[in-house]
Design goal:
Helix content: 25-40%
Distance between the termini: 47 Å
Radius of gyration: 25 Å
Number of helices: 23
Structural class: alpha/beta
Strand order of the largest sheet: 5-4-18-17-16-6-7
Largest sheet: 7 strands, mixed
Strand content: 15-25%
Number of strands: 29
């Protein structure tokens, strides 16, 4: 086993650096030491410190498991498992066509696995039906970035640049809980009184604005777009805009100016609940910070996971452009990538409409280039598929996906309208899940294939600032476990796939380099040797260059070099047939707005963190945060059992009565399964541009559950 492996945390996109040291006691997991690195500077959160406890977890899947006729999973050997999977593919294609086979990937896969998964889907399976869970968390910001700048990279500057900022506007991101080491980069803004947090809750991040450190704006859920239009209005009408920058570096300003004319602060107050004075003060602080050379606008999922999420992110970019921030050496705009490889995972082909290098799959030149690297005729590469929500809705349907492969995702918990997704999984003819635990999605599988965990594999990831990092193997995986690269290579061989599929990560990365060359996300100048030497590698990094730590300093990525203003306006929101209005007529009280999000102790669907004792002890169950006035109106006491419901499903959990949330709003973490699963309530309606689902404004009813009700009855009532 390796000793003292320098690697990175397996969780969020901050990708905190750590060293794993194997102790003398062979049965003990590797010891974690924080490593000095620009993103975390030696710090880690609770998840990072406990990350190795899962490597030898007793619930680990260490051999292929096949579901029997009785529904029980039993071990089979690898040859049997792979032949069953290959047979299912052949039979599905013969009966229904190649697009009846689907693939669902993940933003936690290494660049090598994400790249080869896209190639595997299109060449070995012959399907266009591939997408991934990054569609749930980054697609709107990505679409807005491409719309405005011609290129999407979450942060187009190094994280450490934020250290010098005097003003930071943070919309819809609770970084103090989701990526705690990030908070140190906000210290300068806090010291200057310039940290501005937009969140309907007084989150841990919003609390950082206390004692003169900044401002907390608490808008109605779903009203961030109107707030941003109001800020733009103030910037323009108070003469705060960077006119020389606008004239020299942007396009379509007159249309943008007209579009925000109707969003004066008092009207914005009526739309958002944010006082008009705070709207003006926020705009003025941002402009003052920009003049002094240190102002940033950052967005997160709270602003983006809406049916108008692309437009909301666009409005944030418009505001930043008005102030002259993007492409400046000391100011900027960025979006905070969530998943560990959320950036790299969307660049190299597991997204429905993309080929490696962030190329469009509909671009003839891109198709020809990638086909040349793969050594296949261009016509053999399928066209664009469908985004994740549409893909999941098609499961088991007559013209939909009948055989599905899932890699690095737990859609039974993480997808919107989770009850419908689970029903779709059960309609499939054959479901293959690659995982290291029996997640809620794996529990539905016909075949579970055990795969390596992060500390057992080599590879690369790309963090939230577009920096490519090395993942290094520290321990040997259990004997029956295989890497996904190996699985894809073996299945491709069984399916007589064209091209080549390697199980060696460096070989795959070398091919990725060639496939990405000349594309927007060009990795051709990066190799393992330079990463192992500790050299910085920010894409685009064409061969022969020094990479690009800071994008847009000279020009934006549109052909004319200018950034584009795009006018946007809020759309009218109407409750769907599955909203609170269609809940049981016996429910009392008015419907409320449910916001979902993360807690410090857990990550994504919780499939990993719910197995870490220290984290579970701290947060053992879901809690519904609601305001004291809302609780009193419903007769709900703190800690009481409550039922949260709408026409899509029901959730059973305990109440957390707190003044740190707006009275008409409730918050529920999405890390828990079963009767505590928040996504039983969210709606599978999507942004028309990005395909991002609406996670943040579900209409629900809540009521107290009678004290003393039998636990079995409550579990039954909470199930849907």
């Amino acid at each position: 086993m390796a000793d003292g492996a320098a690697t990175h945390c397996p969780y969020c996109a901050l990708q905190c650096a750590m060293t794993l040291t194997v102790p003398a006691a062979a049965e003990a997991p590797p010891e974690v030491t924080g490593r000095d690195f620009p993103t975390n500077r030696g710090g880690l959160c609770r998840k990072g410190w406990t990350s190795t406890s899962l490597l030898e977890h007793p619930g680990r899947v260490t051999e292929p498991l096949l579901r029997g006729a009785d529904g029980v999973h039993r071990p089979v050997d690898w040859d049997t498992a792979l032949h069953l999977a290959a047979t299912a593919v052949r039979e599905t294609r013969a009966a229904y066509g190649p697009d009846a086979v689907g693939v669902f990937g993940g933003g936690g896969l290494t660049n090598e696995k994400a790249y080869q998964l896209g190639k595997f889907a299109r060449l070995a399976l012959g399907t266009s039906r591939i997408d991934y869970n990054g569609r749930f968390c980054m697609s709107s910001a990505a679409a807005a970035g491409i719309r405005a700048f011609g290129l999407d990279r979450g942060l187009p500057f190094p994280v450490a640049d934020l250290d010098g900022a005097s003003t930071v506007l943070l919309l819809g991101s609770n970084v103090a809980e989701t990526m705690p080491p990030f908070v140190q980069h906000l210290r300068g803004a806090r010291d200057a009184g310039g940290l501005i947090v937009v969140d309907p809750r007084r989150s841990a991040t919003a609390a950082l604005t206390s004692d003169g450190a900044g401002l907390h704006l608490q808008p109605l859920p779903g009203s961030d777009l109107a707030l941003l239009l109001g800020l733009a209005h103030v910037v323009i009408h108070e003469g705060l805009a960077a006119q020389a920058y606008i004239a020299g570096r942007t396009a379509d300003y007159p249309a943008l100016a007209r579009s925000v004319a109707g969003y004066w602060p008092e009207r914005v107050q009526s739309l958002t609940g944010v006082p008009a004075g705070l709207v003006r003060e926020t705009a003025r602080r941002l402009a003052d910070g920009a003049r002094r050379g240190g102002s940033y606008v950052l967005t997160g999922r709270g602003a983006e996971q809406h049916v108008d999420g692309t437009d909301t992110a666009t409005a944030a970019i418009n505001l930043a452009l008005l102030l002259g921030l993007p492409g400046s050496a000391r100011s900027g705009y960025g979006t905070l990538t969530g998943q560990g490889n959320g950036q790299g995972g969307r660049e190299h082909g597991q997204k429905a409409d993309q080929l490696p290098g962030y190329r469009k799959i509909t671009d003839p030149a891109a198709r020809a280039h990638v086909a040349g690297v793969w050594g296949v005729p261009e016509a053999l590469i399928p066209g664009p598929g469908v985004p994740a929500v549409e893909l999941l809705a098609s499961l088991g349907q007559p013209d939909g996906v009948r055989c599905l492969f899932v890699h690095g995702a737990n859609v039974a918990v993480s997808a919107p309208d989770a009850n419908a997704v689970t029903a779709g999984l059960r309609r499939l003819d054959f479901l293959v899940v690659c995982d290291f635990f029996v997640s809620e999605t794996a529990a539905e599988a016909d075949l579970i294939l055990p795969v390596t965990q992060w500390a057992e594999e080599e590879g690369t990831l790309t963090n939230l600032e577009g920096r490519v990092l090395r993942r290094r193997r520290a321990v040997t995986p259990p004997a029956g476990v295989r890497s996904e690269l190996w699985i894809m290579a073996r299945l491709a061989e069984l399916l007589d796939a064209p091209s080549t599929f390697s199980e060696d990560p460096e070989t795959v990365f070398e091919e990725l380099r060639r496939a990405s060359a000349g594309g927007p996300a060009d990795y051709s100048g990066i190799d393992y040797a330079m990463l192992d030497r500790g050299e910085e590698a920010y894409w685009p990094y064409p061969a022969g260059s020094a990479g690009t730590p800071r994008l847009f300093l000279e020009a934006f990525a549109h052909p004319d070099g200018r950034a584009v203003f795009t006018p946007v306006t809020p759309r009218r929101r109407t409750p769907s047939a599955g909203s609170a209005g269609s809940a049981r007529s016996g429910d009392a009280g008015a419907p409320m707005t449910l916001v979902t999000g993360r807690w410090l102790e857990h990550y994504q669907s919780g499939a990993q963190t719910r197995r870490v004792p220290a984290l579970v002890d701290a947060r053992p169950e879901a809690r519904l945060q609601l305001h004291p006035s809302a609780a009193a109106a419903q007769g709900i006491d703190d800690g009481a059992l409550v039922l949260v419901a709408n026409g899509r499903g029901e959730v059973l959990c305990r109440a957390d009565v707190s003044p740190d949330i707006r009275p008409e709003t409730m918050f529920l973490p999405f890390h828990f399964p079963g009767v505590e699963s928040a996504n039983r309530l969210t709606e599978a309606v999507t942004d028309p541009v990005s395909g991002m689902p609406e996670f943040k404004t579900s209409q629900v009813w809540v009521r107290s559950v009678a004290a003393g009700a039998p636990a079995v009855a409550l579990q039954s009532e909470g199930a849907s």
